[in-house]
Amino acid sequence: EKYEAELRDLERSERTALQKQQEIREKHSEVEAELLRLQSILRQREQEISDLTQ
């Protein structure tokens, strides 16, 4: 019984860790997409500045 309870606890911990891992992956994807968007805006602004100063 003690072994079974410990096994259930470990399985629950594993599920929790896997859920957390998935949440982190999703957040990473969101942040990466935002980074690409901001980099694109920055390139546009840099080009605008370059065009104005030439």
UniProtKB/TrEMBL annotation:
Residues 3-48 form a coiled coil. This is Lamin. It comes from the Eukaryota. It comes from Cirrhinus mrigala (Mrigala). The keyword Coiled coil applies. Keywords: Coiled coil. The keyword Coiled coil applies.
